[in-house]
Amino acid sequence: MCGIVGYIGFRSAADVIVEGLQKLEYRGYDSFGVATSNPHLAVYKCEGKISEKFEKARELHGSIGVGHTRWATHGVPSDRNAHPHLDCTGRIAVVHNGIIENYSALTRELKERGHTFLSETDTEVVAHLIEEAYDGDLRAAVAQAITHLKGSYALLVTAEGHEEIVAARDSSPLVLGIGDQELFAASDVTPLIGYTERVVYLDDGDLATLDREGWHVYHHGTPVKRAIEHVDWDVETVRKGGFPHYMLKEIFEQPKVFYDTFHGITPESLPERYRRPSEITVVACGSSYHAGLVFKYLCESTCRIPVRAELGSEFKYFTPPLKGIVMVITQSGETADTLAALKKAKAYNCPTLAITNVLGSTVTRIADHTLYMRAGPEISVAATKSFVAQLAVLMQLVNLMSPKSGLSGSLERANSAIDEVLLQDIGRAVEICRPAEHLFYVGRGLFYPIALEGALKMKEISYIHAEGYAAGELKHGPFALLSEETPVVALCSPGDTYSIMLSNIKEMKARKAPIIGIGARGDRELIDIVDVFLPIPESHELVQLIATSVLLQQLAYQTAVALGRDVDQPRNLAKSVTVE
Ligand code: AGP
User: Which residue of the set 2, 299, 350, 433 is catalytic?
Assistant: First the structure.
């Protein structure tokens, strides 16, 4: 949550920071702010989205600055609570991503020592702590201040009359960009794309200085060398490329994403110790958890290895007995609950495997081994191409664990199946969903997690209350809610559960619920009992599962657009949930 950007170089710092913050807006978008030093400190901050209100921020002069786009944790979204936060003298500016857990005690102590606070945030204590330690040496002052902090932080600090930015990291992501005569710092690499491909990922406990002479990193006070890595994400990947929303662009990228990811995982990608574990515990959140549930169904039935899927937010507090390997799935590689679970698994000495989309992300530094999705940057808050890329990695994993399953060949048609559903007219289904206040999504077996994912997608971007259920469970309570005003999206692909799904649909129909049925093209039996039929190609069950996922993304997207929602940045959400 929250995105930060710092710049020192020869360009207008405000321009670089404003542009960078817009790329980080997916991390939070309730308020923003920029501070530049020229050599006096100038600050502009306000409630609202930077993409809509950036003009004034761009007027700040100077070639050194820091900026922030916020997802409120402590204090409502407001001008006052927007970052940067300043010390009492107004000469030190701080932007922060993370949570200072002991801020109440620190605030009390600082107030007793005469400091005046202007915001309700946890961050402001940092500015005042630096102020107390500052005698002209900004690095030393920041190093001293952070010794008082408990919690998580990625900090950028600049001070009036000081040609330097100091960056510090503990449990929140921070990356440096190394350009020609210019340096950057940011929450992730997206603001750097187009300026430099050379990046340095900071570790927890690192403090870095960026000045006109260059950059230096210290780890708990000791100078250390950090390797420069190369990022080859193209500038086009962070643009909308003619699409009205990032989400739609990302939905349309899926044929290639699936292909690249599926073929990117080779036998060499998976060390021997992960091939036949006695048991697998999968931990993830949100859409990544749903991908984990698909893996559970698939791996247990194909490889006959017991798999348990756990929510990251629960795992830390209610850890089950662990045997075998622990696998975490996270698009961003920064989800706090997933990282906490991973650390716990390591404490239990389990071999750990991570699946992520982001090179250099925190998860890759903690896990014993990482498998990468090849989805490219996903900007829209709703997970789309990253979900399909996770499925690609997980299906390939099952294939590697059970090479005789023949999964690889069966999935060759997946890209064309995605292409096919992308072009489908789903207007009548959108018409049914649009006026609804409540929706149910039902499926069985492998399609149950897809029902959960379809419902999540619909609720997060359209704000329609949508629930995913295992189709057989509806009778155990939710049937009481069915009426002509509660449409049901039924996932009904051929396979072991086909006939029982048809019976379930008839039962729902008997309670007058309008049914949107998704099934194999030409399935007459299904067509005859549903109100709207959305076909998926006749193909292998896993290809149909992928096609159905994409169709449900489209249904959510088009419904949200019809309702005039802010598709890429739905209310109250942020893409990387870096707080527990
Ligand atoms: C779904 O559309 C969401 N963006 C959300 O559920 C997401 O999948 C979850 O927050 C986990 O994120 P991660 O994959 O980056 O860990």
Answer: 2
Tokens of 477: 């309570």
| Nearest C-alpha neighbor of 56 from the set 67, 71, 43 | 43
User: Is the domain of 225 the same as that of 358?
Assistant: no
Measured in Å, residue 99 CA sits from the centre of ligand 1 at 20
Enumerate residues lining ligand 1, CB below 6 A.
285-288, 330-332, 335, 338, 381-383, 456, 460, 575-577
Together in a domain, 270 and 176:
no
What is the CATH number for 98? 3.60.20.10
| 576 Cα nearest atom in ligand 1 | 15
Q: Tell which one of 285, 310, 453 to mutate to probe ligand 1, the residue whose CB is within 8 A of the most ligand atoms.
A: 285
Residue nearest (by alpha carbon) to ligand 1 atom 16: 330
Per-residue CA distances from 123 to 81, 95, 231 (Å):
9, 8, 31
Q: pTM of this prediction?
A: 0.83
Residues 259, 174 share a domain: no
ω into 84 cis (within 30 of 0): yes
**Digit-coded pLDDT (tens) for 287-342:** 999 999 999 999 999 999 999 999 999 998 888 889 999 999 999 999 999 999 99
- Whether 558 contacts 461, CB under 8 Å: no
Residues 53-62: pLDDT tens digits?
A: 888 999 999 9
Q: How far is the CA of 176 from the centre of ligand 1 (A)?
A: 25
Annotated catalytic, 433?
no
CB 166 within 8 A of CB 139: yes
180 lies in which domain range?
A: 3-236
